[in-house]
Amino acid sequence: MNSRANQIGFSQRVRLEWLEMTANLVLAGNDKLTINATLQEHLQDKVSIDGEAVRGNREKIITILMKVWFNTPPELESLRADGLDLLRQLPRPDHLAVHWGMVMAVYPFWAAVAGHAGRFLKLQGSVRATHVQRRLREQYGERETVSRAARRILRSFIDWGVLCETKTQGVYTQGPTMSIADPRLAAWLIEAFLHTRANGCAPLQDLVASPGLFPFHLEHLATASLLAASPRLDLLRHGLDDELVMLRLDIRHS
Question: Less packed terminus of the chain by CB within 10 Å, N or C?
Fold first, then answer.
């Protein structure tokens, strides 16, 4: 479906408030240079302090922030526009789900880390960083960049409050689960998740219970409200109870 599926891309520890700041700068109508300069100023005493490298960690973080909320891949522009509208309309606590969805759509590796973490949490109530890294190396190849990116994303999960540290180093438990009752947000999050899948489709029940969405609980997700909330989703029924939700063909091939 897209060239991002097998890429890592997201290789830095990124705080939720930095994404919120970037989105607010976009919503305020700022151009690329202004957003970049503002982020540089904000992060100069937080990341790569006194660093002069052309592609230091600060620059890499800003690249991630900009790709998520400013220069988004073309096939995600409609998703981004609706995501910005949700940020404008929804209360601040709900913003976590919007940033989560947009990050995983732009960087499917984030969803892969979340998926493995969510499976371990469901199976044993905790997740060990080394186990997640092992699964990801099996999936993406035996590269140190895979383990390093996974570590930083797991640290981001902790920063975001969706994972909690334990007394054992490298072992985490799940943070508070966020209930999503708004059908607009639920449909948008489902759409964002489908962008992480190579074929752009999945059974509805698999989506609702996906380990990659472990920080969230989708409440009373009716098919009719899902489709009404997003014109970019289609539904294919196999029998009475088997419903396959998919991105519309024009979205998948854009």
Answer: C
Q: What is the pLDDT of residues 186-196, one digit of tens each?
A: 999 999 999 99
Q: Check residue 181 and give its pLDDT.
A: 85
Looking up tokens 């913003």 gives 95
What pLDDT was estimated at residue 10? Answer: 87
Picking from 190, 1, 224, 10, the residue whose alpha carbon sits closest to that of residue 97 is 190
Q: Could you tell me if 200 and 246 are in contact, meaning their C-beta atoms sit under 8 angstroms apart?
A: yes
Residue type, 55: R
Split into its structural domains, the chain has a count of 2
How would you class 254 by CB atoms within 10 Å of its CB: exposed for 0-12, middle for 13-18, buried for 19 or more?
middle
**Of 9, 2, 26, 187, the residue nearest 76 (C-alpha):** 2
**Separation between Cα atoms, residue 202 and residue 238, nearest integer Å:** 12
Task: Print the domain residue range for 174.
Answer: 1-178
Residues 135 and 185 in one domain: no
Taking only the tens place, the pLDDT of each residue in 89-126 is: 999 999 999 999 999 999 999 999 999 999 999 999 99
Q: What angle do CA 88, 178, 70 make, to 5 degrees?
A: 35
- Determine phi and psi for 85, rounding to 5 degrees: -60, -40
> Nearest 5°: phi and psi at 165?
-75, 155
On whether both 163 and 187 belong to a single domain, the answer is no
For 206, residues 6+ apart whose C-beta sits below 8 A from its C-beta are none
- Are 171 and 206 within one domain? no
- What burial class does residue 72 get, using C-beta atoms within 10 Å of its C-beta: 0-12 exposed, 13-18 middle, 19+ buried? buried
Structure tokens given for 6? 């097998």
